[in-house]
Amino acid sequence: MSPALHTWAPPSGVAAELLPAGVFWDGVAVPAYLGRQVLARLGRESGAVIRDPYGYRLTWLVPPGATRGWVVPETSWVQLLGTAQHLTVPPGWCTRSAFTHWVRGWAEHGLTDARLLHVVLDAVIRAEHGPREYESGAGR
User: Fold this and answer.
1) Tens digit of pLDDT for each residue in 68-123?
2) Between vectors from CA 43 to CA 38 and to CA 46, what angle results, nearest 5°?
3) Integer Cα distance of 41 and 135 in angstroms
4) Measured between alpha carbons, how far is 99 from 129 in angstroms, rounded to an integer?
5) Do 67 and 21 form a contact (C-beta atoms < 8 A)?
6) In terms of domain of life, where is this protein from (predicted)?
7) How far apart are CA 11 and CA 40, in angstroms?
8) Could you tell me if 18 and 86 are in contact, meaning their C-beta atoms sit under 8 angstroms apart?
9) What pTM does this model have?
10) Dmax (CA) of the chain
């Protein structure tokens, strides 16, 4: 972890807070139906993950700027959260709730390896949505 990450911690109060991405971490927000598969495939290799039950999403925290250059199909509804975007972050203690909470806590798991997450996410998207159009030779 970089020195700056040692200074960051999730909110300590009773409520989740809207925090800026692109400073201490970026977010990779994945629809729950894909996210559950990604989490299962990553297993112990997964870093911290936030569950948003309202948006039906799981969000991984990765190093700032680590998703630059990623290409994800629009139909997957994956969102890459970086500079000038925000994420609702639950208190560090909140691991079970009907509200936004940690599926894998920050203190125990930290950032996810972005390269590994990208490989696994891509495999899950391909399994669910099939090959990407540009890979099938369409439009050539």
Assistant:
1) 999 988 888 999 999 999 999 999 999 988 899 999 999 999 999 999 999 999 99
2) 75
3) 24
4) 29
5) no
6) Bacteria
7) 27
8) yes
9) 0.88
10) 55
